[in-house]
Amino acid sequence: MEPLAYLYVKKGLPFPVGACVALDKERYSLGRASKDVKPDLAFVHQCISRLHASIDIIEGKAFICDLGSKLGTEVGTERLRPHQPYPLKNYDLIRLAGEMVQLQFVYAYAEQTLDLNLDVSAMLDTATDAFAIDMHKRSCTVFNKPISLSEKEWNLLLLLYERRCQLVSTEDLIKAVWSERSPQANGIPDVSLTEVNSLIYRVRQKLKNAVKLENVRGKGYVLNLKV
Question: Domain of life here (predicted)?
Answer without folding.
Answer: Bacteria
